[in-house]
UniProtKB/TrEMBL annotation:
<dbReference type="InterPro" id="IPR050107">
    <property type="entry name" value="ABC_carbohydrate_import_ATPase"/>
</dbReference>
<dbReference type="GO" id="GO:0005524">
    <property type="term" value="F:ATP binding"/>
</dbReference>
<comment type="similarity">
    <text>Belongs to the ABC transporter superfamily.</text>
</comment>
<feature type="domain" description="ABC transporter">
    <location>
        <begin position="15"/>
        <end position="252"/>
    </location>
</feature>
<keyword id="KW-1003">Cell membrane</keyword>
<keyword id="KW-0547">Nucleotide-binding</keyword>
<keyword id="KW-0614">Plasmid</keyword>
<dbReference type="GO" id="GO:0016887">
    <property type="term" value="F:ATP hydrolysis activity"/>
</dbReference>
<dbReference type="InterPro" id="IPR003439">
    <property type="entry name" value="ABC_transporter-like_ATP-bd"/>
</dbReference>
<dbReference type="InterPro" id="IPR003593">
    <property type="entry name" value="AAA+_ATPase"/>
</dbReference>
<keyword id="KW-0813">Transport</keyword>
<keyword id="KW-0677">Repeat</keyword>
<keyword id="KW-0762">Sugar transport</keyword>
<dbReference type="InterPro" id="IPR017871">
    <property type="entry name" value="ABC_transporter-like_CS"/>
</dbReference>
<keyword id="KW-0067">ATP-binding</keyword>
<feature type="domain" description="ABC transporter">
    <location>
        <begin position="262"/>
        <end position="504"/>
    </location>
</feature>
<dbReference type="Pfam" id="PF00005">
    <property type="entry name" value="ABC_tran"/>
</dbReference>
Amino acid sequence: MSEIESANASGGALLSLRDINITFGGVKALKNVAFEVHPGEIHCLAGENGSGKSTLIKIITGVYRPAPGAIIEYDGQTYSHMSPVTAQAKGIQVIWQDLALFPEMSVAENIAFQTVLGRWPRLVDYKQMRQLAMNALKRLGVTLDVDLPLKEYAIAQRQIVAIARALVGEAKIVFMDEPTASLTQSETNHLLEIVRNLSASGVAVVFVSHRLAEVLEISSRLTVLRDGALVGVYPTEGMTQSRITELMTGKTFDNQVRATPKDHQPVVLDVRSLSRRGQFEDISLTVRRGETLGITGLLGAGRTELALALFGMTKPNSGTIMLDGRPVRFSSNRDAVQAGIAYLSEDRLSLGLIQPQSIADNLVISSLRKILSGGFLSDERKESLVSHWIRELGIRIGRQEDAISTLSGGNQQRVAIAKWLATDPKLLILDAPTVGVDVGARAGIFDIVAKLAESGLAIILISDEVPEVYFNADRVLHMAQGRIVGSFDPRQCSLHDIEAAVYA
C-alpha cells in the first residue's frame, strides 16, 4: 500500500475511523476500512457502486452499527458506534442525492424544521424559522425567497437549501452524495464555490461524485474503496482521472476515439427544420444505419426536449421527421415505438424503470406482445426473453423476480437498455445514459453501445459530459439555447476543441 499518503493538514483529524467491518447476509460489505477527515478539509470518497461508500457514511451517521472492534474518533471523543441522534447533535450532516426535502413546504420550513422537532409537541415560531433560514443562506452568499414553496425552485436551488439546512444543524462535517448530478455547468461552478466557502469557514466536506473532473478540482485528498476494502488515501495534486478510474476498478481503461465513417450507410432518421416553441428551433440532422450521433451542450440547451419530440412525447410546431425515407407524425410515444424508435430517459429512477417491480417485469414491459400465447402472457416466453437479454448485455442479477431496486445503478441501466432493445428498434435515443453510474459500469455501457452500432442500430447519444460523446460517437453536434451551433468529427478534432466550444 505504498501509495497511501499521510494527512498533510495541520492538527489532528476531526473524524477518524479504524477497523470498520460490517456484514449483510453473510457478505462482508466493509473489511477493515480506515477513514479520516480533518477540520475544513474537502475530501473525496471514491469508488464504484457497491464499493461500500454509502455503507461507510451510514456507519458514521449511526444508521448502521459496525462489527465489534470498530474505533470511531470524532471531535476528541471515542465511540464504538454512533447513533443517529448523537451524529446529528455532534454536527455530522449528510446531503443525499435525493436531498430528502419537502417540496410543498416553504424554503424556511425546509431549512429550519429540525429546530421544532423534539420529544414533546410545541408551537412553531415561524419568525425564528425565517431568521434561521435567512442567516444560513446569507452564510452561503445566496438570496432566496424563504416564504416560497420549495417546489417553485429548480434542483440547483434545492441543493443549496439542503446545504443551508445542514448549517442550521451546526454542521462540522457535511457528506455530499452526487451533489452535481443534475446541475448545469454554471450551477455546478456555483456549488463548488459554496463548498470552498464552507471549507474556508472550518466545515469539513466529504464529496462523493462520479464526475472525476470535479473530484480533482475541489478536493485535496481522496479515499478510494473497492469491493468494501480500502485501496488507499491519495493527494489529488498530480492525480489524473484515468489513475482514479484504475484505483476504483482495478482495471486499465484505454480511452480511444471510436468514430468511423458511416457516409455509405442508408439514412435512418432525417430531421429537417424541426422547431418547438420555447424549447428548440430549426433543428436539422441525420442519423445513418450503424451510426452513433452524439449531442452535447449544457443542461437547458434543448437536448432532452428534442429527444422527447422525436419520441412522440411532445409535438413540434414545425418541421419534418423522416424515418427510413418516409415522413412520420407521432400522436404519442406508442406510435414512435411502433415505428421503431426507442428512448432511454435520463431519469432512470422515476421514468426509466419501476423500482418496486421485478427485473423481469421491467425488462418486458415495452414488448408484451412478444410474450403473448393464445391471448395470455406466457411465463415461458417471458423467461426466455429476459434470459436472452440478460445474457446479451451481461446483466448481473440474483433472480429475475427480484425487485429492480436490488441492482446496482450500472445493472439497472443495462436492464433499461434491454427493455428497449426487446422492441427491435431502428433508432435508439440514449439520454444521459450514465447518470448515477460509476466509471467501471460506464465503460461497460459504452461497450454495449458500440456493439449495438456495429449490429446496424442507429443511435443518438445525448450527454452533457463532452468526453462521453467525443470518445463514443461518430459525429458530435453541439446544442446551445435550443439550436445546433456546431458539428465536430472526433477523428479530426481534439477533446479540447469541443470542450472549449461547449464551456465558452
